[in-house]
Design brief:
Strand order of the largest sheet: 7-6-11-10-9-8
Number of strands: 17
Number of helices: 14
Strand content: 25-35%
Largest sheet: 6 strands, antiparallel
Structural class: alpha+beta
Shape: elongated
Distance between the termini: 22 Å
Radius of gyration: 30 Å
């Protein structure tokens, strides 16, 4: 097989769409076109420019990225959206110059990733709405502290009925809980407690219950009259689950829910924390799972998820506690190695290749492409180092991806 045939076979094995543009954004070549993901045919595209295909500002930005790649000789990327069969479809395009007048571009659909991100935002909004709509307990007392009124929700939060609470002092009710739990009947300081100007006090009340201590957020405001204090109004709500949810949400905000690894947000924050001379040299390794789309198509997304979980487990096992390991996107992972050079990175990659070679998921082999780069000075930005590692990873993927396709 000649070199051109080999290259054609490699390109044909890629899941991405390949375009070739000239410096004016005209389509010179287009391969791997999936009719379900295209608005125009290859013949139509060769008569058009990127500004004609991508609507509005997207087309202008696409041409700008083409010329930027030609000018710098480096990889550039672009995200865009097309209306295909009445549905918005999202794509990510990576451009690399072929020569001084043309650019090769790999376009990958990221609709599922974008929709998943938006679905997560919708779920978060629903959670916030639900939390806001939870009923609050309300009670009133007279000037002696005797409960004169309490609603059913408030009584339930205190573990009694309105009839049993009305006529009792609030202090007596709290004393009833004392000694029955780790903090029964105790007030703890909360934000805004003791606001002298308004007389409003806010506290966190710990109520002991058979299932464990419950935390109530309590706001107490005096009722004043001509003769002085006429009692107080107490508003409270159960924040036990909210406190637990806060910890869970905090965990989810820094972790990938599928693999349990850290996520992009954690990686970017860690990168900022490691922006110090004592963390140099600093090596970043990019890992991309080969054949994930083929696995999803052939065996279903559940198998694809299991493949990602298996890959994440091996990465976590081989990385040390000094490394920052995160899942960046669908099939991409990153390993940040502070105070480590390319020799250490190569040794780690070699161990990972061995580990992946010894592991299978049913009939599916584990294949991961790697690329890495080392930063020796703070003047070399982390973004530049990342791009170098990414470029090397994609070059490696060009050779390893087709092999994985043939084995899947």
């Amino acid at each position: 097989m000649g070199s051109e045939q080999k290259m054609a076979a490699i390109i044909g094995a890629l899941p991405d769409i390949l375009f070739v543009f000239d410096r004016d954004g005209r389509y010179l070549e287009c391969t791997n076109l999936d009719p379900g993901r295209m608005v125009y045919t290859p013949e139509q595209l060769k008569e058009m420019t990127i500004e004609q295909v991508l609507p509005g500002e997207q087309g202008r930005l696409g041409l700008e990225k083409i010329r930027e790649s030609l000018k710098t000789g480096r990889l550039s990327s672009l995200e865009y959206v097309l209306d295909i069969q009445g549905r918005p479809r999202y794509f990510e395009m990576r451009l690399m110059p072929l020569d001084e007048n043309s650019v090769a571009a790999l376009s990958r659909e990221i609709t599922e990733r974008m929709e998943a991100s938006r679905e997560l935002e919708r779920e978060k909004e629903l959670l916030e709405t639900t939390l806001r709509s939870v009923g609050e307990g309300i009670l009133t007392t007279d000037e002696r502290g005797v409960i004169t009124l309490i609603n059913p929700i408030g009584a339930a939060l205190l573990g009694m009925t309105p009839e049993n609470l009305t006529g009792r002092t609030l202090s007596g009710v709290l004393k009833q809980h004392q000694g029955r739990g780790t903090g029964g009947g105790q007030f703890l300081p909360a934000d805004g407690s003791g606001e002298a100007e308004t007389g409003v006090n806010r506290n966190l009340l710990v109520i002991s219950a058979p299932q464990g201590d419950r935390y109530l957020d309590v706001t107490m405001a005096p009722v004043s009259g001509a003769g002085g204090s006429q009692g107080q109004v107490v508003v409270f709500r159960d924040v036990t689950d909210e406190r637990k949810s806060h910890r869970e949400i905090e965990y989810l905000s820094y972790h990938d829910p599928l693999t349990g690894l850290h996520n992009r947000r954690y990686y970017l924050e860690a990168l900022q924390e490691l922006e110090r001379p004592d963390c140099l040299p600093q090596t970043v390794i990019l890992a991309d799972v080969n054949g994930l789309k083929l696995t999803n198509d052939a065996f279903g997304h559940q198998t694809g998820d299991q493949l990602l979980i298996r890959v994440a487990g091996i990465l976590e096992k081989e990385c040390s506690t000094d490394h920052v390991l995160a899942r960046l996107s669908g099939d991409e992972f990153v390993i940040l190695m502070p105070r480590a050079d390319s020799i250490e990175a190569a040794a780690l990659v070699e161990r990972l290749h061995r580990a992946f070679g010894l592991s299978r998921l049913g009939s599916v082999e584990l294949s991961v492409s790697f690329g890495w780069a080392t930063r020796h000075r703070l003047e070399e930005t982390a973004e530049e180092t990342f791009k170098k590692a990414e470029d090397r990873m994609y070059k490696q993927k060009l050779f390893e991806g087709p092999s994985m396709r043939n084995r899947t």
